[in-house]
Amino acid sequence: MPPKTQSIRPNELAIIRQVFDNIDTDNSGTIEVAELAAAMKQIVPDATDEEIDEIFAQTDLDRNGTIEFEEFVKIIQTWLEDA
Ligand SMILES: [Ca+2]
Ligand SMILES: [Ca+2]
Protein backbone atom coordinates (compact mmCIF):
# COMPACT_ATOMS: atom_id res chain seq x y z
CA MET A 1 0.00 0.00 0.00
CA PRO A 2 1.54 3.31 -1.03
CA PRO A 3 1.89 5.97 1.67
CA LYS A 4 -0.85 8.60 1.63
CA THR A 5 1.71 11.41 1.62
CA GLN A 6 3.52 10.04 -1.43
CA SER A 7 4.12 13.34 -3.25
CA ILE A 8 5.37 15.17 -0.15
CA ARG A 9 9.02 14.91 0.84
CA PRO A 10 9.91 14.08 4.45
CA ASN A 11 11.34 17.57 5.03
CA GLU A 12 8.13 19.12 3.71
CA LEU A 13 6.12 16.86 5.98
CA ALA A 14 8.17 18.09 8.93
CA ILE A 15 7.33 21.70 8.01
CA ILE A 16 3.64 20.86 7.65
CA ARG A 17 3.81 19.17 11.07
CA GLN A 18 5.26 22.37 12.57
CA VAL A 19 2.51 24.49 11.02
CA PHE A 20 -0.10 22.01 12.25
CA ASP A 21 1.31 22.06 15.78
CA ASN A 22 1.37 25.88 15.74
CA ILE A 23 -2.32 26.01 14.82
CA ASP A 24 -3.17 23.27 17.35
CA THR A 25 -2.68 25.62 20.28
CA ASP A 26 -4.21 23.28 22.90
CA ASN A 27 -2.01 20.40 21.69
CA SER A 28 -4.98 18.07 21.32
CA GLY A 29 -3.49 16.59 18.14
CA THR A 30 -6.40 17.92 16.06
CA ILE A 31 -7.37 21.37 14.81
CA GLU A 32 -10.76 22.62 15.99
CA VAL A 33 -12.67 25.36 14.19
CA ALA A 34 -11.71 27.96 16.82
CA GLU A 35 -8.01 27.14 16.31
CA LEU A 36 -8.37 27.42 12.54
CA ALA A 37 -10.21 30.73 12.98
CA ALA A 38 -7.41 32.12 15.19
CA ALA A 39 -4.74 31.03 12.68
CA MET A 40 -6.70 32.37 9.69
CA LYS A 41 -7.21 35.76 11.33
CA GLN A 42 -3.47 36.11 11.80
CA ILE A 43 -2.83 35.42 8.11
CA VAL A 44 -5.94 37.10 6.71
CA PRO A 45 -7.18 39.62 9.31
CA ASP A 46 -10.43 40.35 7.45
CA ALA A 47 -11.38 36.71 6.87
CA THR A 48 -15.07 36.25 7.68
CA ASP A 49 -16.55 33.49 9.84
CA GLU A 50 -18.28 32.18 6.72
CA GLU A 51 -14.95 31.88 4.87
CA ILE A 52 -13.36 30.14 7.83
CA ASP A 53 -16.31 27.74 8.14
CA GLU A 54 -16.01 26.97 4.44
CA ILE A 55 -12.28 26.25 4.64
CA PHE A 56 -12.84 24.14 7.73
CA ALA A 57 -15.57 22.14 6.00
CA GLN A 58 -13.33 21.60 2.96
CA THR A 59 -10.47 20.43 5.14
CA ASP A 60 -12.49 18.22 7.52
CA LEU A 61 -12.83 15.45 4.96
CA ASP A 62 -14.48 12.87 7.25
CA ARG A 63 -16.73 15.58 8.78
CA ASN A 64 -16.07 14.60 12.37
CA GLY A 65 -15.72 18.25 13.42
CA THR A 66 -11.93 18.29 13.80
CA ILE A 67 -9.04 18.48 11.35
CA GLU A 68 -6.68 15.55 11.80
CA PHE A 69 -3.04 15.82 10.68
CA GLU A 70 -3.77 13.52 7.74
CA GLU A 71 -6.55 15.83 6.53
CA PHE A 72 -4.28 18.85 6.98
CA VAL A 73 -1.58 17.20 4.83
CA LYS A 74 -4.15 16.47 2.13
CA ILE A 75 -5.38 20.06 1.95
CA ILE A 76 -1.81 21.38 1.78
CA GLN A 77 -1.12 18.92 -1.04
CA THR A 78 -4.19 20.20 -2.87
CA TRP A 79 -2.99 23.79 -2.47
CA LEU A 80 0.50 22.89 -3.68
CA GLU A 81 -0.94 21.14 -6.73
CA ASP A 82 -3.13 24.13 -7.55
CA ALA A 83 -0.27 26.62 -7.17
CA1 LIG B 1 -6.60 21.42 19.08
CA1 LIG C 1 -11.77 15.19 10.43
Automatic annotation (TrEMBL):
Its main location: cytoplasm. Residues 11-46, 47-82 form the EF-hand domain. The keyword Repeat applies. InterPro entries: EF-hand-dom_pair, EF_Hand_1_Ca_BS, EF_hand_dom, Peflin/Sorcin_CaBP. The keyword Signal does not apply. SMART domains: EFh. It holds the Pfam family EF-hand_7. PANTHER family: GH27120P (PTHR46212:SF3), PEFLIN (PTHR46212). This is EF-hand domain-containing protein. The lineage of its organism: Eukaryota, Metamonada, Preaxostyla, Oxymonadida, Blattamonas.
